[in-house]
Prior knowledge:
The protein is of the alpha+beta class. The radius of gyration is 14 Å and the shape is globular. A hairpin with a 2-residue loop joins strand 3 and strand 4. It has four helices and seven strands. The protein has helices spanning 3-19, 76-83, 105-118, 121-128, and strands spanning 27-28, 33-41, 48-58, 61-65, 86-91, 94-102, 135-140. It is 33% helix and 34% strand.
Amino acid sequence: MQDLTVKLLSAVHRELYRWTGGRLGKRLSRVDAPMLLLTTTGRRSGKQHTVPLLYLDVEDGWLVIASFGGRDYHPAWYLNLVAEPECVVQIDDRRVKAVAASVPADRRAELWPQVVAAYPGYADYEAKTDREIPLLVLRPG
């Protein structure tokens, strides 16, 4: 999928989610996976950017996957979190301040099968790229 198409679909998804408090856009329909809105601070612009992401509940927060459809470069939201880990997570109509932390390699190996079970497309994305797809935990705080 072209980056412009991804941006357009993401913008529509984001606005539907916001306007309806998550009643529309809270599930990734093809696999019935939960979605959240993640707001980061742009590493260059300093502006707020919000993207819809699939997530998994983990014991210490919400797990997000920086797959970017298997592209050979990281998504902007991931690079923003590396530069500034403080963010805002919206699940349904609840907004929570959070801090992002990269998942260490041993825990990633444990979590990756759960990620693929939640959305099998992640296995295809992993096969398309030479980069390791980062996992991050967004912890309330």
